[in-house]
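Quick one, C-alpha cells below. Sequence please?
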C-alpha cells in the first residue's frame, strides 16, 4: 500500500512538466480527451470533499492532460517517485505487511518496479479497458485512504486475483510476491535468498487457505487478514494522508 500511495499523494503538489516537453503535451492532447463526472457526483461516490477532489484533479490533469492514463504512462509516473530501488525504512514508514499478508515486519520500504506497476494498473483499471480515468483513480484512492477495513481488503484481494476469477491461486500469489521482492532489489538487507518468494507463498497459503484446497477465497482472505495484527495496523497508515 505504501507503494500505491507514495505516487498518487504526490500528485497533489507536483508541478506541470518543463516547457521542453510542450510538444509531447500537445501530442497527448490530440488524443480523445475524457471529461470526468461532475465533482458533486464524485463527492457522493467517494469519501473525498469537493475541495479535495479539485486538488486531486489538478494533479491528475497535470500528469495526464488527455484525462486518461494508459499502462505505459502509469509506469512512467510511478517511476518518477520511486526511481532508486528499495531504501531502508524509517521507523514510521510504510512496510510490507499490507501487501504481503502473514509475513513478519521486514527492514525495508516498498518502491517501484515495472512488474508490480503492471499489476497495480490492472487493479485501478476495474473495467479492463486498458486505461484509467480520473473516476477510477479517485475511487481506488478513496478506498485505500478512507475505506472500511473490508473495502481495503477487498481491493487488495482484487490486486492479487490477477485473472479475476474470484480466487487467489499459488501461481498468482507467486507472481505478485516476485514483483514485490523485485522492487526491493539489491538494496535489501539482509540479502534475500533465491527461494524467499516461494517460502513466502507457502506461508501465505498455510495461513490463508483454511480448507487446504489450493486456492484462497475472498472470505478466507478477509478472515485471515483480520486475524493478523500487522495487517490491521498497516491498514491505518494512510488515514490522514489528505
Amino acid at each position: 500500500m505504501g507503494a500505491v500511495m507514495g505516487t498518487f499523494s504526490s500528485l497533489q503538489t507536483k508541478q506541470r512538466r518543463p516547457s521542453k516537453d510542450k510538444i509531447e503535451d500537445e501530442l497527448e492532447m490530440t488524443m480523445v480527451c475524457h471529461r470526468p463526472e461532475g465533482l458533486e457526483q464524485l463527492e457522493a461516490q467517494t469519501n473525498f470533499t469537493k475541495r479535495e477532489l479539485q486538488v486531486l484533479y489538478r494533479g491528475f490533469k497535470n500528469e495526464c492532460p488527455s484525462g486518461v492514463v494508459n499502462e505505459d504512462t502509469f509506469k512512467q509516473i510511478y517511476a518518477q517517485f520511486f526511481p532508486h530501488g528499495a531504501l531502508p525504512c524509517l521507523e514510521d514508514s510504510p512496510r510490507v505487511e499490507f501487501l504481503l499478508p502473514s509475513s513478519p515486519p521486514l527492514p525495508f520500504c516498498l518502491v517501484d518496479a515495472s512488474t508490480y506497476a503492471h499489476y497495480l494498473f490492472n487493479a485501478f483499471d476495474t473495467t479492463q479497458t486498458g486505461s484509467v480515468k480520473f473516476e477510477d483513480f479517485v475511487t481506488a484512492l478513496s478506498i485505500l485512504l478512507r475505506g472500511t477495513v473490508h473495502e481495503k481488503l477487498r481491493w487488495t484481494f482484487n490486486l492479487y486475483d490477477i485473472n479475476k476469477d474470484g480466487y487467489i491461486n499459488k501461481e498468482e500469489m507467486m507472481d505478485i510476491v516476485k514483483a514485490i521482492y523485485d522492487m526491493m532489489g539489491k538494496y535489501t538487507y539482509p540479502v534475500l535468498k533465491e527461494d524467499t518468494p516461494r517460502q513466502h507463498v507457502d506461508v501465505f497459503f498455510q495461513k490463508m487457505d483454511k480448507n487446504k484446497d489450493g486456492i484462497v477465497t475472498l472470505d478466507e482472505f478477509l478472515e485471515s487478514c483480520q486475524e493478523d495484527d500487522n495487517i490491521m495496523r498497516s491498514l491505518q497508515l494512510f488515514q490522514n494522508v489528505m
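The longest helix spans residues 170-184. The chain has a mean pLDDT of 76.
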